[in-house]
Amino acid sequence: MCTIFVNNWGVIQFCHVLPIIVYTDGAALGNPGPGGYAAVLMYGDKRKEIFGAYKLTTNNRMELLAVIRALDNIKSRGIPVHIYSDSQYVCNAVLKGWLFGWKKKGWTKVKNPDLWQRFYPLYELFKPHFHWVKGHSGVAENERCDFLATQAAAQGPFDADVWYENNVAAPDKLL
Q1: CB within 8 A of 135, min separation 6: which ones?
Q2: To 10 degrees, the CA torsion angle through 117, 106, 87, 152?
Q3: Alpha carbon of 4 to those of 78, 80, 156, 162: distances in Å?
Q4: Which DSSP string corresponds to 34-100?
Q5: What is the pairing mode between strands 33-43 and 46-57?
Q6: pTM for the model
Q7: Ramachandran angles phi, psi of 63, nearest 5°
Q8: Which of 95, 137, 89 is nearest to 110 (CA)?
Q9: Taking a C-beta distance cutoff of 8 angstroms, is the pair 153, 28 a contact?
Q10: Which helix (H) or strand (E) holds 115?
Q11: Which residues are catalytic?
């Protein structure tokens, strides 16, 4: 959307680029247990819903994976991206700068380093703006993501969260 102003020196054009709006959520039934992630991506009148499920994972992993998968689905560069999440874990990692400290320390002593390492280059590419929203508070797109993530966790089909299963999960949880 552009606004054109004409002044004494000629024409000046101001353009406002619509942002890409993303809502995300993750769910785990058991934590750890079967998990699901979901995202709703919106740009103007376009809308895309994505979701998936893992057989053994955690809620925080699914919250972060929802953001990663959403950013993976954005094909255009140079458009502002706003991510709305009910995960303080994900939002605070960026808003409070934890992410940058974890990277500086080589991803040691951080939970889910595999996912944070996948997220970081996407963060650098898109520089998304994060907004925390209270879960289960009637925000329509957040509620939709919650529904999709919970449904995915309950019904599958399930992928294996290989890093989690190999590095964190107790062997008796894998049977």
Answers
A1: 25, 86, 142, 146
A2: 40
A3: 22, 22, 51, 54
A4: EEEEEEEEEETTEEEEEEEEEEEE-HHHHHHHHHHHHHHT---SSS-EEEEES-HHHHHHHHTSHHH
A5: antiparallel
A6: 0.89
A7: -60, -45
A8: 89
A9: yes
A10: helix 113-126
A11: 25-26, 63, 86, 136, 146
What distance in Å separates the CA atoms of residue 116 and residue 100, rounded to the nearest whole number? 10
What's the mean pLDDT when you consider all of the chain?
92
| Residue ranges of domains in the chain, CATH in brackets | 2-158 (3.30.420.10)
Strand order in the sheet with 158-159: 129-132, 81-85, 20-28, 33-43, 46-57, 158-159
The CA distance from 57 to 55, in Å, is 7
Q: What is the pLDDT of residues 6-19, one digit of tens each?
A: 666 666 666 678 99
Q: What is the pLDDT of residues 10-51, one digit of tens each?
A: 666 666 789 999 999 999 999 999 999 999 999 999 999 999
Structure tokens at 50: 């994505």
